[in-house]
């Protein structure tokens, strides 16, 4: 395995780490995996998730670029670019693909995003035919009848009531701090529009993976919710899917993170043309 720092994009402002397998282990036909920031985490990912993923993928013959968007981590702020953060993230993700195509001759890519990273991954996957696979971790969710029914059951949990009573014993200032409004919000696309996007991607043959954690409990809370959100598409057996109800949003527990990595690596291997795998 070899890792090296690279710069690319407008003004050469973007900084990333390219992880490549040993030449003898390169998997012919394998797409290059591209990873960007999760929130304000830099390119190592939360709890070094992206580092572990890149190195394990290298052991399977994949190259991976994990990079910082402008103004985050090691990448400098840009003087010019899209008018908002989302548009800049899309532009910079495409710049990463352009760099890999021009410098490494790569023309097939897999994108993986977690939480806010899903926004640019989804947009670029829809727009760019070079993307042959995309994984969305804790991405877009829509509440269903099944969600609302299960959400009410939470009031029957003794553990929840115990947490509530302990919280009421905290000093007022600490309690109010924990109840403060979140400062970060995301705008989801219209559900019908998202369903159209997924339908077009499946027609294009894009290998899709959807993963949800228990950290999405305020909008996602049972195994089949994903399939019911997009029931007209009949997505069972058409996409890779996993729900980890006991994992938190950033997969901070090592066992949960290891399980996520196993799922992503198995899915990535599935994006390689069968002829390449059989030699």
Automatic annotation (TrEMBL):
Pfam families: Hydrolase_4. Residues 33-130 form the Serine aminopeptidase S33 domain. It comes from the Bacteria. Gene3D superfamilies: alpha/beta hydrolase (3.40.50.1820). This is Serine aminopeptidase S33 domain-containing protein. The lineage of its organism: Bacteria, Pseudomonadati, Myxococcota, Myxococcia, Myxococcales.
